[in-house]
Amino acid sequence: GTYDEDEEVNIAADAPATGMHFDAWTGDTSGVANVYASSTTFTMPADDAEVTATYDWTDYSLSVASGNGDGTTYHYGDVINVAADAPATGKHFVAWTGDTTGLADIYDDTTTFTMSAANASITATYDWTDYTLSVTNGTGDGTTYHYGDVINIAADAPQSGYVFDEWTGDTTYVSNVNASSTTFIMPAANSSITATYILASQHTLTVSNGTGGGTYTTGDVINISAGSISGYVFYKWTGSAGTFADDSDETTTFTMPDADVTIYANCSEAIDELSKLREGSATGFTTVTVDDAHLTGTVDTADGTGTNITVRAGTGLAYQVALYGINDLFTTIPTTSGGNPATIASATLHLFRYNAGSSSDTVYVDRMLTDWMTGDAGTNETDVTFLHRDKSADLHWASGGAFSSSDYTTTGEASSFWTSTYNGEVTIDVTSILQDIYSTGNNYGLVIRTDATGGLSFRASENGSYMPYLEINYAYGLATPMHYLDVEGATATGEVATNEPGYFWEGQGVTITADTPAAGKIFNMWVGDVGYHNGFTMLTKDCTPYA
């Protein structure tokens, strides 16, 4: 335009092109108020003048996450090479996310980005790759497993006469190639494994004093049953190999090992101890001792010979009844005629016509390990020692004391409860309390207690039996197995068997006598499973010597 000298003129630069910005005024800039301002003023000199607005490229940044191609000085229209980082093991590139408008192909991990007139950011994303596991002759197949997955695999059941051998194929990832059921840890690749089989080994099972013997394949599950021997009861199964489903059950199953094996149906001598426990005597195990020195309350009968034994106490006190004389039952440990010690198979305390006062009351039985009626314990009840623990010094049997279940070893509760007086029988399992009696050597009776606040009553005599009474069933474990001895042309007698042929302890000396020879003949020698001429030592198997 035409202006007077010294006239001030407003000047403004044109809008910059995309991706550019105003830089400065150039030319006759002496009259420009601010050469770096796109809008400013120009003071007219005395001559014609000319100024020019200049521009430059704007710098833009590109941020590339999980890839390369980052930069901070890119310009509009620049074409930039971008590439995703290599995926982690077991994963693959999926797509670019973010300002993806400038990307040539968002699904290509190596592509180009055309810079827009703005800062931009893009991210390479990944996902798990699906891999296939093929399991031949087994289970565990799949087509969508991922790297690191732990897969349960199992071989199919083998055909008859075969057993599983091992896994083959991509076995690097099998936890145990020799186990038919194991795991497979998925690698970053498709994989295949195969369960293989071999002919099963055949072995002989010999059942001594029982049924089920024969030729079997390793792993077979065989039904076995113990035989019966007059004067004996089944005790347990034993053997050097293989597995019994229940070695204490005379009819059970046996899993065949990878070897010939002999198993034994061991027996124990049948002795009826129950009749001994039911003797009509008020002095042995039936004696009940309770008095005011050791229990608060009224004692109707103290010696166990009367009609009723009733113990009552005040509210808040537990009730104790001490049964003495039980120690007499264990002064001699029962043994078999073969000298094998007995063990307690079960022990039950019977309380006839019991009244606890409430159906919610509980009866407990504890065993004393010290005598509380003699010596210091007779006057100081805190000296009483119970199974596995001492009685606390601040607890007393006399009035004013309190009882805590933590001061006893509780081993049983009454099997039933009644609210009406004198109605029924309670049985309490005391097996565990008595089983270690032989090793401790100091049994001083049982204590029956209840936390009830009513009464605890017993009937001392009912149908000719004294109450309470203790029923013990003994088991006679065998130190050695028994085997069958069949003597041809002779007779045999031993400590255990009463008839020949019969069962004898392994290693037991048995007298065998040849039958009277026929006319014109004399005894020559023993053949077969022989010991010696005048006697026979039982071998570790069933035997048949011949005269």
What does this structure look like?
The chain is mainly β. It has 6 domains: 8-57, no CATH class; 60-128; 131-199; 204-269, no CATH class; 280-476; 482-546, no CATH class. Helix content is 3%, strand content 43%. It is built from 4 helices and 47 strands. Strands 7-5-11-9 form a 4-stranded mixed beta sheet, with no helix packed on it. A hairpin with an 8-residue loop joins strand 28 and strand 29 (308-312). The longest helix is centred in the middle third of the chain and has 4 residues, at 274-277. The chain starts with 7 loop residues before the first strand and ends with a strand. Mean pLDDT is 68; it is low at 271-333, 352-361, 368-424, 436-445, 450-467, 491-500 and 531-544.
Counting DSSP E segments of at least 2 residues, the number of strands comes to 47
Query: Structural class of the helix and strand makeup?
Result: mainly beta
The helix content is under 10%
Largest beta sheet, briefly?
A: 4 strands, mixed
Calculate the mean pLDDT score and round it: 68
Termini, distance in Å? 152 Å
- Give the spatial strand order of the biggest sheet: 7-5-11-9
| CA-atom Rg in angstroms | 49 Å
Query: How many helical elements?
Result: 4
β content, as a range? 35-45%
Q: What is the overall silhouette?
A: rod-shaped
Which parts are unreliable, with pLDDT below 50 for 5 consecutive residues or more? 271-333, 352-361, 368-424, 436-445, 450-467, 491-500, 531-544
